[in-house]
Amino acid sequence: MNATTTLVYDGSFNGFLTSVFVAFDEKINVADIQKNNQSQNGLFSETETVFTHVEKAKRVWNGIRNKSHNAISNVYFAFLSETEGVEMMLYTYIQKLMRTQNGKYLDYSDSTVLHIAQLAKKVGREKHRMEAFVRFQLTKDEIYFANIEPDFDVLPLISKHFRDRYADQKWLIYDVKRKYGIYYDLDHVEMVSLNLKDIHHNKTVKSDAFAPEEYEYQTLWNDYFKSTNIASRINPKLHTQHVPKRYWKYLSEKKEAV
Amino acid sequence: MNFDRIREKLNILADAAKYDVSCASSGSTRTNQNKGLGNASKMGICHTYTADGRCVSLLKILLTNHCIFDCAYCVTRKSNDVPRAAFKVQEVVDLTINFYRRNYIEGLFLSSGIFKSPDHTMERLVSVAKKLREEENFNGYIHLKSIPGASDELMYEAGLYADRLSVNIEVPTISGLKLLAPDKKHEDFTKPMEKVKNEIVRYQSEHKVIKNIPKYAPAGQSTQMIVGASGESDKDIMYSATYYYKTYNMKRVYYSGYVPVTHDARLPAIGSQVPMLRENRLYQTDWLLRFYGFSVGEILNNQHPNLDMDVDPKLSWALRNLHHFPVNVNTADKRLLARIPGVGMQSVDKIVKARKFRKLNWDHLKKIGVALNRAQYFMVCESRLWERRDLDADKIKGMILQNSTGKFRNQYSTQLSLFN
């Protein structure tokens, strides 16, 4: 039996790409690729810690992208799903991709390829939903502030969307689950970590942090939401299918439902 | 801003606008300029969904529900006794901007009852859009409703500021229109459409020469018709829709199951059921015509003037045309694959990609996402298990219905429910 190695990386996407580089470069027989905070020693494998190296990561990124644009976005999206064991699956996927002549013609009847594509699709769906379901609330210091709590780590994916759209206002979107946010200061977007003592759901109780007219607009929106409903066509099942309940506590039109 | 008064108006004027089906915010190419506000998303975004399950993407309101017309199907009709209100231009602008800044909406859908005259009303609508674009530097989506009978000059101006224009033909047949909207003429609807179509064509051809000319209604035109109010057949509706798609380059035709809103002997009584299933079947047919290469005569014709309610239109067509089947998924071209019931366009693409590597069998097809409960009777693949060769249409239909649980199934079930 060949000696196998478990690669441990820092949990970042660049760290993961560096691991892939190291594995290819040193022709390592990879047993697993794990984040450093959750690594477990395998019974019969060595452990090697990989230090993130941006240049190496970039080479892997470009290598995949040159094969196929679709594949590079699949890899990034699937990685952000934070699914357990996704790293090893991605590693297999990248191996397969590198072996093909043309990355455009990936074999969708192969289970790894299909699975990665499906994961990427799930993450893409949540990205799209977050673009829809972010609800900004205007704070007293004129920052439009929003909390989100997505299943997948989509903040890096939605940053451009909000930058393009709200170029003339300061905004901050904060991921409650992962405890970091993205902040736009009218110039560029940066990552911020905050220690929020209040989570600011769209509560019915007013908070001092927000501008007084904020609650007026929330009421108007709430009213609007109600008056667009056609009672004779009501369909709660369809409604929750489109607006899953786990998002409700951050939606101002669902205030009363919380 | 007087929020209480705005609140009252919003309740009245959103309520009156909700019967307009269109809420699309897609298809525009407008981008954020000079660090302004807003950026139209090509695919559109639904920001929430109403309790009846329809997408909310735009702030959809009427400028006013005062109206000089008396169309039988309309809540806002002159003779209907409802509270009336009217927004000021600036109020609509403020609402739109503040909702947009909070990421509630993609933009504005502004329609109106007709007060004084069509031109007087249209002018107000245009000035809202103009203010948003020029004073607020707003690049979000604007959908303006063309007022029937508005002048060419105003229609031209509207297209400069709006992403989409629409005028609802409401009643699919001219005779129905005479009956239900005696004040309106067919030409009142088609004249603004014609104008907008010609302008779009002109701007597109100029755009080929000069790249930076302003946009003119980049997301095109749409229209809507009411279904089930004037006794028309599905064939009438779809032929009429096809006519509008072809003649006026419509981006979308919407179908709106009639919701009884007034007491009128010419119309279904208040409380009668909204024909939602029929509406659903019409949208499916519309899809088949636009994306699946069907022609309207194949699906609806004199022998078959109405859509089946118990099966979808593609399946219904396939059952009437069994001689086209079975299709071999491993060799057939895209056009034929798209005609198999249970195979959507996405599956067609995946099949074509995957079969480069190996011949596909039932397992592969299932993983790809083909609805085998329907598709299995109409295709052959890399498997000898195809036992349906001798079934006739009735049997196939029976087997499919028996093994499916469609969302409308209970409406057709003959099973009595115990406690009703």
What features would you describe in this structure?
The complex is a heterodimer of chains A (258) and B (420). Chain A is α/β, with parallel strands linked by helices and 258 residues long. Chain A folds into 2 domains: 122 residues, no CATH class; 121 residues, no CATH class. Chain A contains 8 helices and 8 strands; from the N terminus they run βαββααααββαβββαα. In chain A, strands 4-5-6-7-8 form a 5-stranded mixed sheet, covered by helices on one side. A 3-stranded parallel sheet of chain A has the order 2-1-3. In chain A, helix 1 crosses helix 2, helix 2 packs across helix 3 and helix 3 runs antiparallel to helix 4. Chain A is elongated, with a radius of gyration of 22 Å. The termini of chain A are far apart. The mean pLDDT of chain A is 88. By secondary structure, chain B is of the alpha/beta class. Chain B folds into 2 domains: 275 residues, TIM Barrel (Alpha-Beta Barrel); 99 residues, no CATH class. Helix content of chain B is 40%, strand content 9%. Chain B is built from 16 helices and 10 strands. In chain B, the strands form 3 sheets. Chain B has a 6-stranded parallel sheet. A two-stranded antiparallel ribbon of chain B has the order 1-2. A two-stranded parallel sheet of chain B has the order 9-10. In chain B, helix 2 packs across helix 3, helix 3 runs parallel beside helix 4 and helix 4 packs across helix 6. The interface between A and B is large, with 54 and 55 residues. Chain A: Pfam families: DUF4130. Chain A: It comes from Flagellimonas oceani.
